[in-house]
């Protein structure tokens, strides 16, 4: 496959680069730092050596070319080396630059990220953005297979998707002993898929997979630490109404969601596709925020009376409210949430993303074809004027 240029930029200095498996961290780093000293902790011998004797890292670094960048891939497999990395970064001569990648934050949160004392930035790599793919982007395909580079480029994306979560369960959850009962955890993953793009009621999920709420909380922590899913909080700033308290949950990629979400004769295809479309927009918004280092945070808005806006982006760099509808036409009821939001927050820029083919303006709301919005969304540009 021809390499796809990514919007992610080298932040300079030492940094952590987090992202789920298959998002292209190693590919990007090998292109950016061709002459780096590369230490891949997926190699069992190297993992054992640095786990048992982390001081060996100093000898490896001392033997490298002067000024060479040191890349430690999947650093969570030997978090003990972070103490040595911290010491080497502190040394003024020779000054070394470290790039540390990870597909799980669990061990690092317990044992080491803070040891670097803020001397390494934290950055994230996300699935492809539509604009990175350009003419190769296909909305229908993205809604089914997702945009994880390792899956998108596979000969059989559907088969690769089926194996993707199994890979995490086998190599991360089982190997690291993160949960005691893999069967219960697998049931939890399936039950959690029904909460994608919805308010998360963890008690209901726990009942569905027949575990205690405490166990479900622990399982959710594992899923989030493995960077497979994330929660979006309710926007409550200067709230004028009684709001929902439950956050929304999203899987990091819509293809992974589709692979986990069971479907049968009793399931309405439009419900699943609607959740997939909203999740696809969510993953693009996260990438747009992170890659552009935009000072906004992602929220949603829902009142107790049922008015809802799917995404609210708020911060020093702007204030936007976005609603996503899996429909080819715009109906007055589709704008209800945005109308209510405008009453409370008249300064917010509003837009409806839908499956139609033409841009419209209805009741002062920009109605933008979702395909067009995603294709034109680029880090560093205004969220709405870029399309």
Shape call: globular
Count up the helices.
Answer: 16
Helix content: 25-40%
Report the average pLDDT across residues.
90
Number of domains: 2
Oligomer: single chain
- Major sheet description: 6 strands, mixed
Rg on CA atoms, Å: 22 Å
Low-confidence stretches: none
Alpha-carbon distance between the two ends = 28 Å
Strand content: 15-25%
Order of the strands making up the biggest sheet: 9-10-11-12-14-13
The total count of strands amounts to 14
Structural class: alpha/beta
List the helices and strands in order.
EHEHHEHEHEHHHHHEHHEEHHEEEHEEEH
Structural summary, described in words:
With 387 residues, this protein is an alpha/beta fold. The protein folds into two domains: 15-124, P-loop containing nucleotide triphosphate hydrolases (Rossmann fold, 3-Layer(aba) Sandwich); 130-376, no CATH class. Helices cover 39% and strands 17% of the residues. The chain is built from 16 helices and 14 strands. The chain has helices at 25-32, 44-52, 56-62, 81-90, 106-111, 130-133, 139-145, 149-152, 157-174, 182-193, 202-208, 213-225, 254-260, 269-291, 336-344, 370-376; strands at residues 15-18, 37-40, 70-73, 98-102, 121-124, 198-199, 229-232, 248-251, 297-302, 308-315, 318-324, 349-354, 360-362, 365-369. It has a six-stranded mixed β-sheet, with helices on both faces. The chain has a five-stranded parallel β-sheet with strand order 2-3-4-1-5. Strands 6-8-7 form a three-stranded antiparallel β-sheet. Strand 13 (360-362) and strand 14 form a beta hairpin. Helix 9 crosses helix 13. The longest helix is centred in the C-terminal third of the chain and has 23 residues, at 269-291. The mean pLDDT is 90.
